[in-house]
Design brief:
The structure holds two protein chains of two kinds. Chain A is mainly alpha-helical. Chain A is built from 21 helices and nine strands. Classes of the chains: A mainly alpha, B alpha+beta.
Chain lengths: ~675, ~120
């Protein structure tokens, strides 16, 4: 508890120090690259500007080093849990030598110190090659020190693809350093050139502005591309963007980007062409304007770096459960089984597309631009007004929460027990919504077997279970049931809904058919350690056989005789006795020898959970390598079937291209 | 000294430093790998004949082949839990043993070859 308040109180200090360090590092790189971007000039004003910029870089380097010490102290205090650790040599040493962040810190600050020493050298740079070597070396050292920051941020924790994530972050940092850092020094050059006595440097400044503009375009494109890439790897969903602290900070950052881009566009397409105009009337005022625009851009970029500093201390959205902030969400599933909404959405989307086309036309066509623009806005607006409400469904803060209890047979069985105790009264013993206690309610209790169950997310169900549905008369169970119990119920309801739909699953593999996630289960054979269905993921197809003796004996004998062939085709049969006895192997007998797993431990939960999918006395499921149920064979009479038909299904599964997303990421 | 020479020397020094560090690190990793391999070899050399007592469930008895198939627990230093056939030292060993029996058996041999030398049913 104490540690958390400590973290909260000092989070602002930590962000502040990181911001200063980051901003100073970026500005150092910018100051050192600006002379290289603009090029060398012997004019007095240019030489004075370069002196000033490099002198500034020295001071900024000092600031970066001091703030760097601060970030190290802060990180140590954070790791050790108390503020005074920031001054303890032993604690600092541990962080420096034993953490990845410490190693990167050492390398970066070593390079910054080296850069400092290099900047203090007062060599003769009057010859071009010496000047290039001096400025280039300084920029290189600064850039490497800045780019290495990518190796200690969130990117280092991305898995798989750590190296790529670090490379992308490094590219982002380097581009930011060259572009955002150089804005201020180059604005200073514009200012010098716009003055009366700066006339000597004016052609040089104009040339430099053009060169910087070309470079800035490349850098901004690189920033956008790498930024989008790492956003998608750290956030991964809209819910993560609007529902977590990380996502919302990122939104603020993204909101600043268009402003900066707009300023950059004004610089490039408005002021830059004007620089070459007549000096006093056009050229010098344009230089002034360019300086102003670039200064504002630089200020915005510094604010943006502050957000980056805050982001670097915030856990990325992909590690958090998002809290949905709106009372509705937009989804295409809202249109399923609703013909009137479908028509409305169709008309709305057509209107919106027309509006978009008109908008493009408004920019392309010279005449009647205003009228077309107004029409475009009207059409687009009307289209969205029709379309969006049709897609909206109710949503709750937990809508995008993922179940913390896995979709597992034992959880489903626990959920079924809780269902009988708390829910069956209203929702009915089989979930049809016809329980005796539900008769007098304002709204009929939901039929949990109806296909619409699949349209709600697990998080929706969790919310209703926790808080109830007041206008429908459903009570909330947040007080009575623990969070895990509520997730058990969610898993049970999900299995119930899937059970109703899975009855449509046939005995043969149908490509493109809706796939049902196979509930995970654990089982053991004799004294062997327990295994779970998940262990077969990506490796084997599982043939799950729920059997009843004696009727199933011939079928099991048939499978036993074909076991070697099945194993060769990548199939593991798992046989589960419906009566769940520990002596199941004995009862099956010795002839023919059955060598695939006969479940002696854990059978009960499997039978109970999978009975929701079929209650036939003998039933076989094929579960593909991604963890989805693909066939369901539940014969009414004796279980007799040619083994070749099973082999044909297996063949088909083996021929399917890999790449289906694994089953548990498929949360409804 | 001319500045371009300073920059060049500095870069050379950095490259040498980083390259040297990388080589040192690689050499160290190589040495550690070598030590690991030697330790593994040493362990393999000590693989003289050993005995294990293992629990399992009989899945099939194949008297013609002199083999008994058992789903067994993990055997330390020998193999992971699995269902597999073991040769038996003498046919008397599976006298009275039935499929589905839980058993405790004694395995003797040099991995990966083991022979069942004794077997008893456990309740």
């Amino acid at each position: 508890m104490v540690r958390y308040t400590f973290v909260e109180l000092n989070a602002a200090i930590g962000i502040g120090i990181r911001w200063i360090h980051l901003a100073a590092s970026v500005l150092v790189v910018g100051a050192l690259s600006a002379p290289l971007i603009v090029g060398r000039s012997p004019r007095a004003t240019a030489v004075a500007w370069e002196e000033r910029v490099v002198g500034g870089a020295r001071w900024l380097l000092l600031v970066a080093l001091a703030a760097g010490l601060g970030t190290l102290g802060y990180q140590t205090a954070l790791v050790e849990g108390h503020m005074s650790a920031a001054l303890e040599t032993a604690a600092l040493g541990r962080v420096l030598l034993e953490t990845r962040g410490g190693h990167v810190w050492l390398a970066r600050h070593g390079l910054l110190l080296l850069l400092g020493a290099f900047l203090l050298l007062r060599g003769d740079i009057s010859r071009r090659v010496d000047w290039l070597a001096t400025r280039g070396e300084a920029m290189l050292l600064g850039l490497v020190a800045l780019g290495l920051l990518g190796a200690s941020g969130h990117a280092a924790a991305v898995e798989p693809g750590t190296a790529l994530a670090i490379a992308v972050d490094t590219l982002h940092l380097v581009a930011a350093g060259v572009w955002a850092g150089a804005l201020l020094p180059i604005a200073a050059l514009m200012a010098a050139a716009s003055e009366e006595r700066g006339a000597d440097v004016r052609p040089h400044a104009v040339l430099g502005a053009h060169r910087f503009s070309r470079l800035a375009l490349i850098a901004v494109l690189g920033l956008l591309a790498s930024g989008i890439w790492s956003t998608s790897s750290h956030v991964s969903s809209i819910a993560g963007l609007v529902g977590t602290a990380y996502g919302r900070l990122l939104l603020v950052k993204l909101a600043l980007v268009p402003a900066i881009l707009a300023l950059a566009a004004v610089s490039r397409w408005r002021w830059l062409p004007a620089l070459a105009g007549e000096a006093t009337a056009v050229g010098r005022p344009a230089l002034q304007r360019l300086r102003q625009t670039m200064s504002i851009e630089a200020a915005l970029a510094l604010v943006l770096l502050g957000i980056v500093a805050a982001l670097s201390t915030t856990p990325p959205a992909r590690h958090l459960e998002p809290t949905w902030p709106f009372s509705y969400r937009l989804t295409l599933t809202a249109l399923e089984d609703a013909p009137d909404l479908q028509l409305r959405a169709l008309i709305g989307s057509q209107l919106a597309v027309l509006g978009l086309a008109a908008l493009v036309a408004a920019f392309l066509i010279g005449t009647a631009r205003r009228a077309i623009f107004a029409a475009a806005l009207g059409l687009g607006g009307a289209g969205l007004v029709l379309l969006l409400p049709a897609l909206a469904v109710d949503a709750y803060p937990t809508t995008y929460r993922r179940p913390t209890v896995t979709y597992h047979a034992s959880s489903i069985v626990d959920g079924a027990r809780l269902y009988r105790e708390h829910c069956a009264g209203c929702h009915g013993a089989t979930g049809d919504g016809d329980g005796p206690a539900g008769q007098g309610l304002p709204r009929r209790p939901a039929n949990l077997n109806a296909p619409h169950t699949a349209q709600h997310t697990a998080g929706d169900l969790f919310w209703w279970l926790s808080h109830g549905i007041p206008r429908g008369g459903m009570p909330g169970f947040g007080e009575q049931l623990t969070e895990d119990q509520r997730w058990d119920l969610v898993n049970f309801v999900r299995a119930l809904g899937a059970g109703g739909a899975a009855r449509a699953l046939g005995p043969e593999v149908e490509p493109g058919r809706p796939r049902f996630v196979a509930p995970d289960f654990s089982f053991a054979v004799g004294p062997m350690p327990p295994q779970s269905l998940r262990d077969f993921r990506d490796r084997r197809i599982v043939l799950l056989v729920l059997y009843t003796l004696p009727a199933s004996r011939p079928r099991l004998a048939q499978l036993a005789r074909n076991h070697q062939l099945l194993a060769l085709l990548g199939v593991e049969p798992i046989a589960v006795p419906r009566d769940a006895t520990p002596d199941a192997i004995q009862r099956l007998g010795a002839d023919p020898p059955t060598l695939f797993p006969i479940v002696t431990d854990g059978a009960q939960a499997i039978v109970e959970a999978y009975s929701l999918l079929s209650d036939a006395s003998h039933v076989e499921f094929l579960i593909d390598r991604a963890g989805y149920l693909r066939t369901r064979w539940a014969p009414q009479g004796p279980p007799v079937r040619e083994v070749n038909r099973l082999l044909a299904d297996i063949q088909q599964l083996n021929e399917e291209p890999a790449g289906t997303p694994p089953a548990d990421e498929h949360v409804h | 000294m001319r500045m371009w020479k300073v920059a060049l020397l500095l870069n050379l020094a950095l490259l040498l430093g980083i390259g040297g560090g990388y080589l040192w690190w690689g050499r160290r990793a190589e040495r550690l790998e070598g030590e690991l391999a030697r330790a593994r070899d040493a362990q393999a050399l000590s693989r003289s004949e050993q005995e294990w007592v293992v629990r399992g469930v009989v899945r099939a008895v194949l008297p013609d082949a002199g083999v008994i198939v058992i789903s067994h627990e993990a055997i330390a230093g020998f193999m992971a839990p699995m269902t597999m056939g073991f040769r038996v030292a003498s046919p008397q060993i599976y006298d009275g043993v039935q499929v589905g029996d839980a058993v405790r058996f004694k395995l003797r041999g040099v991995a990966p070859n083991g022979v069942v030398i004794a077997l008893e049913r456990i309740p």
